[in-house]
Amino acid sequence: MAGAGKLPVEFLKSARERGEAVITFALEGITNPEVEELSDEVVWIKPFKLGKFFKEVERRRPAKFFLLGKVEHKAAVDLKGLDLKAISFLMKLKDRKPQTIIIGIIEELEKRGVKVANPESYLKRLLLTKGEIIGKPPSEEVLEDLKFGMEIAKEIASLDIGQTVVVKNKTVIAVEGIEGTDECIKRGAALAGKGFVVCKAARREQDMRVDVPTVGIKTVKLIETLGGKGLAVEAGKTYLLDRERVETGKIPVLAL
């Protein structure tokens, strides 16, 4: 299942290198069209049509199934565009946190005999090791803010609120909610002015099959443009896209 962004494309490139055949279930208006060139078959589905999705997966019975890419969480709140199966599914959940929804979908797939697997072995090259710095090293002041912010980000992520915090002078300026990482950064920058840092973390017990933090050049450029001084991500639990372009950026990216 390919949501938004480049992560599904990176997965497909790895699968092709291994000589594996891949069926991609793509979401109309959301999934990167590049998946067409890298997949053996693409099944396009309208977003949030869970009934159609389950039927198409059951028809094909893949040996392994992976969930990759972003899908907006807002639909779980306003229910716009959802089919009856999706509404019924949401109503049965204990809450509508992102992880609850995704684990619920995994359980529904596994009831149908489809095993949802961890894609980490396909994407290992995108994970950063602890202490790794991309770009110029940060100043001591920026490093302290990044370390402070990372601890806050881990707590927020573990509560399934969001993955991102904006910090300045060891003060939390903004916390990501349903709006997503980039909008959180914009809000934090508007409140803090120049000199802020951004930290993105995984849940303490992160299931690497689902909702793994991902950053790329778009986020790095946004931080630069708004006057940010650095970005910290969680080592071994965050996928970094566009590494070569990030290396030429003006801000340090640290794995903590």
UniProtKB/TrEMBL annotation:
<dbReference type="Pfam" id="PF06230">
    <property type="entry name" value="LpxI_C"/>
</dbReference>
<dbReference type="InterPro" id="IPR053174">
    <property type="entry name" value="LpxI"/>
</dbReference>
<dbReference type="InterPro" id="IPR010415">
    <property type="entry name" value="LpxI_C"/>
</dbReference>
<dbReference type="InterPro" id="IPR043167">
    <property type="entry name" value="LpxI_C_sf"/>
</dbReference>
<feature type="domain" description="LpxI N-terminal">
    <location>
        <begin position="1"/>
        <end position="126"/>
    </location>
</feature>
<feature type="domain" description="LpxI C-terminal">
    <location>
        <begin position="130"/>
        <end position="246"/>
    </location>
</feature>
<protein>
    <recommendedName>
        <fullName>LpxI C-terminal domain-containing protein</fullName>
    </recommendedName>
</protein>
<dbReference type="InterPro" id="IPR041255">
    <property type="entry name" value="LpxI_N"/>
</dbReference>
<dbReference type="Pfam" id="PF17930">
    <property type="entry name" value="LpxI_N"/>
</dbReference>
